[in-house]
Design a protein that fits this description.
alpha/beta, about 725 residues, five-stranded parallel sheet, seven-stranded mixed sheet, disordered N terminus
Length: about 725
């Protein structure tokens, strides 16, 4: 049964943890035989200690997963060294990401915790206990702290988790009972010394994910909020999974996770059949499926327990560290986290293999797991081989006269000091995985790197978040400023809870209230919602444009309108022709209205480009001021031929009438440049599609894009499909 398995696991865990300590304590007074007898007696006692079983349901065993050897190896390293730095697994749907993460939990040995600790404090590390535990911990008759054995925790962080739930907050019920502030532990406290699992980490709120990784990097959670000031240890193994189709992980997060691997792999036909059989067998009879790989599972459990003991004595030489640093430099990796994580991975590999020293194979595997996925690799390795003159020259032969004597002396020294010489020579790979130019030399590693190397550094969803106090998702409570529109009831009660007893005693009324809340207890909700995007199509409808690419521009605009509608972004159409620009379609999500108005758009006349930019900028700024739009992109379809001054478009009398002032071409270009610079300074993205139908573009449209700090495409003969594709690509870049 699960209880019996847990008891045996507890015995093995405590035996492994106490073996070295027991020998050291009795070595001075007892013989080895007596020490072994004492240790055997302690093992029998430990084997009968009950284990507080986990509430987690039966999971698919990791040993039954077909393929994914790299990921399983990385997970085992995390089981050996929970401080490894975290493991991120990317993969599409149905690639067993979550199954492998949960399967590792069943392999971890149980942990011994201080009985009165809320964060699984280690009794052998009193310096890491949470504040106040030393004074309140229960002790037996001999003064020893009472402990309890429980399964290693497995805590999953939900996507909608709030900051309070993550780091901890005030326990309202206990605070009201005791009349003082009582801390309610969060998910980070529960996960200490276990596994903290985050599914779809790329969709997790940025603030929460940054806070999560900061706490894990420090190894300690400091809580200072709502009258609480305390700290507790937080050193779980982070396992994160995400689907790259829903958006890649930000560079900031990837850099702080030790190992990032891809679960997307091509299985053979036989392996796919076996995977289906394993899954069906587990669905039909989970117990029988677990028993079929019980021997392998028990072997892995034992290996992890023993490897944790080896890890304490595992060493890595200076030369081996230099090898890892050189690989990171050759891989063009910025920062030092890659080398630090690689050192930990190499030591964990050695410990898992039952060795106290890192060898060349450990270094190469650490490079593959940690450094290669972070590297900025080239697409293909060079074909040229290094020249012969670059190879080091062979050593000169020894003198013939003394050759025999030296051979005899060397043989004698080797026989006497073989072990010492082996210890002195560091085991380093003979070749680098990266060459000096950052190209991976090993073809097998190249394929693995291209599979795991991250593409892009931002999540697929929009990162523009609008904070408000009236609409959106509840993020965190804040002190109210002015009138409180949305009251954070939970935070208000937590703030008032410690004072209920005192307020009830001060109340002179005979009939007491159930809850006493004062104005100083009020907390408001800080809400956040995804900011939509506004795409403004600034279409040149002048005579020159109509002659060139007007039909193609209309088709491209309609195509982009459809894709914008699918992503729930708003669109606006601003054509400019004649003497001025107009807002043909205000910001809207109505695709039918946009299609109708674009089809009815008239063409011909002058080209008031500067006024068109001004009107588009005004539409974008007004939309951003409403709080519903966080990103504005202006797609300008023009040939760049401005011939109407913005002064005339704005109705300046000097530019009207028979004696009207006429702007020079230089002045017209300067007006366009000034307006483009203002748009770029306002934080709006600009895409200029130059459709000037000449042998070479005059360059005015390109200059417009440069002044607006935007993108430029020259498509004089492009079809509507090509123009739409270029626009969609630029919009995707702006979103990322």
């Amino acid at each position: 049964t699960r209880g019996e398995v847990g008891t045996s696991r507890a015995g093995r865990a405590r035996r492994a943890g106490r073996a070295t300590t027991t020998r050291a304590a009795v070595a001075g007074d007892e013989t080895d035989a007596e020490a072994r007898m004492r240790e055997a007696m302690q093992m029998d006692i430990d084997a009968n200690i009950p284990v507080e079983a986990s509430t987690m349901r039966q999971t698919f065993p990791l040993a039954a997963v077909i393929g994914q050897e790299k990921i399983k190896s990385a997970l085992l390293l995390g089981g050996v060294d929970p401080t490894l730095g975290g493991i991120a697994i990317s993969g599409r749907r149905g690639t067993a990401k979550s199954i492998m993460a949960r399967g590792l939990h069943a392999l971890l040995p149980p942990i011994e915790c201080v009985k009165d600790s809320f964060c699984n404090a280690d009794p052998t590390q009193p310096s890491e206990w949470e504040e106040g535990l030393a004074g309140k911990a229960s002790r037996d008759a001999n003064g020893n702290v009472e402990t309890i054995i429980r399964d290693a925790p497995f805590v999953q962080v939900p996507l909608g988790v709030t900051e309070d739930r993550l780091i901890g907050t005030v326990d309202i019920e206990e605070s009201m009972k005791q009349g003082k502030t009582i801390f309610q532990p969060g998910l980070l406290a529960q996960a200490h010394r276990g596994i903290l699992y985050v599914d779809e980490i790329n969709l997790l709120d940025d603030g929460v994910s940054n806070l999560l990784l900061s706490v894990l990097a420090e190894g300690e959670n400091v809580v200072e909020r709502e009258g609480i000031t305390l700290r507790h240890p937080c050193k779980p193994l982070l396992i994160a999974t995400f689907n790259p189709e829903e958006g890649n992980l930000r560079e900031h997060l990837l850099d702080r996770i030790a190992v990032t691997l891809s679960a997307d792999q091509m299985l053979t036909f036989e392996d796919r059949v076996e995977a289906v059989n394993q899954a069906m067998g587990f669905q039909n009879s989970a117990e029988q499926s677990v028993q079929s790989v019980e021997e392998a599972t028990e072997g892995i459990k034992t290996s992890i327990i023993l490897a944790r003991e080896w890890l304490e004595d595992c060493t890595i030489t200076k030369e081996q560290v230099e090898y890892l640093v050189r690989e990171a430099v050759r891989g063009r990796i910025q920062g030092h986290r890659a080398e630090l994580f690689a050192v930990k991975a190499a030591k964990a590999l050695a410990a898992l293999d039952g060795r106290s020293k890192v060898n060349a194979d450990d270094l190469k595997e650490a490079v593959r797991l940690v450094i290669v996925p972070r590297s900025d690799i080239l697409d293909s390795p060079p074909d040229d081989q290094p020249d012969d003159d670059e190879m080091p020259p062979p050593p000169p032969p020894p003198p013939q006269d003394n050759a025999e004597d030296e051979d005899k002396d060397e043989n004698e020294e080797e026989e006497e000091d073989t072990e010492e010489e082996e210890d002195d020579v560091p085991d380093i790979p003979e070749e680098f995985i990266f060459d000096a130019e950052g190209v991976i030399l090993d073809k097998d590693v190249t394929q693995f790197a291209q599979q795991t190397n991250r593409q892009g550094g931002r999540s697929g969803r929009s990162k523009n978040i609008i904070f408000s106090n009236d609409r959106g998702r509840y993020i965190k409570p804040v002190l109210p400023k002015g009138n409180t529109i949305r009251l954070a009831v939970d935070a208000t009660l937590r703030a008032a809870a410690p004072y209920q007893k005192a307020r009830r005693e001060r109340d002179p009324n005979a009939e007491k209230k159930k809850v006493y809340v004062e104005k100083g207890d009020m907390r408001a909700k800080k809400l956040a919602r995804k900011a939509g995007a506004l795409v403004i199509f600034l279409v040149d409808a002048s005579g020159s444009m109509a002659l060139n690419r007007m039909n193609a521009a209309k088709g491209a605009a309609l195509s982009i309108l459809e894709s914008s509608y699918k992503s729930r972004d708003m669109v606006s159409i601003v054509p400019f022709r004649g003497d001025e620009a107009e807002v043909l379609l205000p910001p809207s999500r109505s695709i039918a209205m946009a299609r109708s108005r674009l089809d009815q758009m008239a063409c011909g006349g002058g080209s008031p480009l500067a006024h068109g930019l001004s009107v588009a900028a005004r539409v974008g700024l007004n939309a951003m001021s409403t709080g519903d739009v966080g990103r504005v992109m202006i797609v300008c379809l023009t040939d760049g031929r401005a011939n109407v001054s913005i002064e005339k478009s704005n109705g300046n009398p000097e530019y009207w009438g028979p004696d009207a002032k006429k702007a020079t071409q230089e002045e017209l270009n300067q007006e366009v440049a000034d307006m483009a610079a203002k748009i770029g300074g306002a934080g709006m993205s600009v895409l200029v599609i130059d459709t000037e139908n000449k042998f070479l573009s005059s360059g005015t449209a390109e200059e417009l894009a440069k002044n607006a700090q935007g993108k430029y495409y020259y498509l004089p003969n492009g079809t509507e499909r090509e123009i739409a594709a270029a626009t969609a690509s630029a919009m995707m870049d702006a979103q990322n």
